[in-house]
Amino acid sequence: MELIDGNQIATTIVAELKAAVAALGGRPPCLALVRVGDDPASVSYVKKKEKTAEEIGVTSRVILPPVTITQDELFKLIDDLNADPAVDGILVQSPLPKHIDEVAVFRRVSPHKDVDGFNTINLGKVAQEDETGFVACTPAGIMELLARSQVDLKGKHVVVLGRSLIVGKPVALLALQKKAGANGTVTICHSATANLPAITRQADVLIAAIGRAEFVTADMVKPGAVIIDVGINRVADATKKSGYRLVGDVNFPAVSPLAAKITPVPGGVGPMTVAMLMSNTLKARRLAATAR
Amino acid sequence: MELIDGNQIATTIVAELKAAVAALGGRPPCLALVRVGDDPASVSYVKKKEKTAEEIGVTSRVILPPVTITQDELFKLIDDLNADPAVDGILVQSPLPKHIDEVAVFRRVSPHKDVDGFNTINLGKVAQEDETGFVACTPAGIMELLARSQVDLKGKHVVVLGRSLIVGKPVALLALQKKAGANGTVTICHSATANLPAITRQADVLIAAIGRAEFVTADMVKPGAVIIDVGINRVADATKKSGYRLVGDVNFPAVSPLAAKITPVPGGVGPMTVAMLMSNTLKARRLAATAR
């Protein structure tokens, strides 16, 4: 069994991006980070993004509207960033307060600055295999992890557990693309799937993204499979100071001995997400530099 | 074995649409049909669409630019139709001459008038399960055939053969949606799939859309499966006056005895496409009547 080390791969990508940014002519790429309110997880995610941006040489502009901001005010704020030629990428940190329509906000971000890849047009472009768009960071990170671990999906059966808009569906569409590294046969399973273990046992590559702690057990996995665990779940643990520990959607102790390659949680897919956000920001900067 | 009669189901839908159009207040729905040049298949498709529109009470406006039209001129023509409040739906008949970028043309059609469902935004909305968009006519027709044949996909394994942008991918996304009638477990196979018969034999519902004459043989099908044949292929036949006959992607004589339900070719999916185009045009008319 080989561990797919997301921290190490992300570190390599960050170093590559830093070199690419240094080689850019003109001003550095600029990423606007919009965080509404003070949700503790959001505070920590945005801080991590700021820190990585700084490391790479990407300018970040952090905007902190109060939790009472109206949807129209937030639209206005996004419209201003869309129109600002000094801003290349815009990220609106999820989750937003309940009085705001999150999908409408993501759709408001200009497709050319949508470094989170949540705009409807960019999702459509993934289906169309149109590389002018932006791929959402988690599915892009999964494909990058596989490519850098020498896992070629061609002719392989890829089983995706979960059909979410931000992971399951886009990663399925990416794995299906007719291009080098992809070209997999893809099955998408979910809560209504019958005989789930019989299907997941067919997977040469199993991508678990259902948000249920240690859901994938040894009987659901074919020996020699590659396992990508997207889940990040808290489970109570009295031995920890925090009172909990983080586990994935895969029962790691039981499944890892069977796997050819497997991502740990934490330290697998997680670190890739911020690296891909920075990669998208550099892409947006390059797009902005060419005529549209 | 039960034959799924696409002609009969399409006739029922046309009658329903006729009643719905008659019950509409204000002007009738208007569909612009743009046909570039005189490709014989396109001439016949557009004629069929005009005829069905007339039957339902939809006004059609047929526009016949010469095959020498430039891409910019075609864009201008589409922009005018996009801006015309008397036009609800716009269809640009495929194929277009080689000097024109087809995807760019489809993207030029306003998403609100895109009754063909080929605009990137409308494809993204299928993935997002956002019902304000338009679903492409062939995949929409397949879902309608299944629903009207009492085939509920929930908990079923749906295998889609083919990953095209206009059939395979959108029908896979539709079958996967978390809504009544859908909710299937979905596998997408294609030219690079290994052990194809072992996968198609798992299908409770098999949707064949690869454009290869009589490709699906009896050994690829589980007894009791529902078979939807999207293919329309010409094969040489000296006994026919035309010198050919039409066959699907399924070897009908060999497979039909095994199937619980199966669509014939012709007379299965084909007739549904025009019916769904008219359904989309009525939807566009209703959307136009409400504030955007």
Key phrases:
six-stranded parallel β-sheet, alpha/beta, Rossmann fold, globular, 10 helices, three-stranded parallel β-sheet, 292 residues
Secondary-structure element order of chain A, N to C: EHEHEHEHHHEHEHEEEEHEH
Number of helices of chain A: 10
Distance between the termini of chain A: 47 Å
Helical content class of chain A: 25-40%
Look at the helices and sheets of chain A and give the structural class: alpha/beta
Give the CATH H-level superfamily of the largest domain in chain A. NAD(P)-binding Rossmann-like Domain
Overall structural domain count of chain A: 2
Characterization of the model:
2 copies of one chain form a homodimer. By secondary structure, chain A is of the alpha/beta class. Chain A folds into 2 domains: 24-112, Leucine Dehydrogenase, chain A, domain 1 (Rossmann fold, 3-Layer(aba) Sandwich); 137-270, NAD(P)-binding Rossmann-like Domain (Rossmann fold, 3-Layer(aba) Sandwich), CATH 3.40.50.720. Helix content of chain A is 39%, strand content 15%. The first copy, chain A, has helices at 6-22, 40-56, 71-83, 102-108, 120-128, 137-148, 168-176, 196-200, 252-255, 270-289; strands at residues 2-3, 30-34, 59-63, 89-92, 157-161, 185-189, 205-208, 226-229, 233-236, 244-247, 261-262. In chain A, helix 1 (6-22) packs parallel to helix 10 (270-289), helix 6 (137-148) crosses helix 7 (168-176) and helix 6 packs across helix 10 (270-289). Chain A binds chain B through residues 103, 119-125, 127-128, 130, 154-157, 163, 165, 169-170, 172-173, 176, 178, 183-190, 192-194, 199, and chain B through 103, 119-125, 127-128, 130, 154-157, 163, 165, 169-170, 172-173, 176, 178, 183-190, 192-194, 199. Strand 6 of chain A pairs antiparallel with strand 6 (185-189) of chain B, so a sheet runs across the interface.
